[in-house]
Amino acid sequence: IMRLEVTIVFALLLVAVGCGKEKPAPPQAAPPKAVAKPKVPASPEELARAFQQTLLQNNAEAMMMLSLLGHGTNAWIQFSQITLQEQRRSMATELATLEGRPREQRSDTEQARVFTLKVQLANLEKTHAASFNNIDRKLPADRHTFKEQGYHQLQQALKEQGMVQDQLKLAAVDTTGVTDAFLGSNLRGGEVVLRYTQNGEPVSGTISFNCALLDDLGWVIVDPPKVNPNRPFGPQAPANPDQPEPFPAPSPPTTTAGGE
Asked: How far is C-alpha 164 from the geometric centre of its chain's CA atoms?
């Protein structure tokens, strides 16, 4: 009996000691590594080199990320606000010029233009705001369209000019089209032209795109890259002085009235 009591006491002591021990803490998972942000192009030349890299890699997604399509809605808002201000200024200036002449001295066409400008200015803010209502749905669709159609159109244009995508070497970047008054506004940007060699020989065709310097984004492509056949190097007179066609964008629709 004495031995049994000693055994019971010893067992209770073991249980007590075991209960008093702290359970080892589970191993902590390593903190997730921060995702590196893509390098922001600091110049039109750097943007052109980054574009060329996506072309060599046949990477439509990476090419898109260099454009407005690759950025969020803030980029669209920033670019559209700048172009909106310039559009408003241009309309107001034209209207003031027309109304500077007495009504009896204006032609019917000029008077119709006065009416059209007044309607457009009255609706400008409304149509611009409305254009952003569906941007969260529209932007993904536009990105898909570029990757499935726009990029392949660029590839086809290269083939038509005998430009082999993975054999092109960037020879020069022409930034003479970049100004401090892009689209007539207080915005640094303009056309960048990429010239190439292929198999050691100069290629007459070029690739060009318009780009702009946006806050916190650096240099961004703002319209679809295009292939230009047999384009001479250096500054050229613009074939179309109008605003370049943008990527599918929430730009305000033009309100028209009779007489325009």
From this structure: 26
Choose between 43 and 80: higher pLDDT: 43
**The pLDDT of residue 231:** 56
Q: Which of 105, 111, 106, 97 is nearest to 258 (CA)?
A: 111
CA 216 distance to own-chain centroid: 13
- Residue 67 DSSP code: B
Question: Phi first, then psi: what are they for 136, rounded to 5°?
Answer: -65, -25
Residue with tokens 């943007």: 47
Lookup: tokens for 31 = 């903190």
Neighbouring residues of 60: CB distance < 8 A, sequence distance ≥ 6: 54, 146, 147, 151
The pTM of the full predicted model, rounded to 2 decimals, is 0.65
Average pLDDT, integer, range 106-135: 80
Quick one: CA torsion of 85, 90, 96, 97, rounded to 10 degrees?
170
Over residues 112-125, the mean pLDDT reads: 84
With 0-12 / 13-18 / 19 or more C-beta atoms within 10 angstroms meaning exposed / middle / buried, residue 133 is exposed
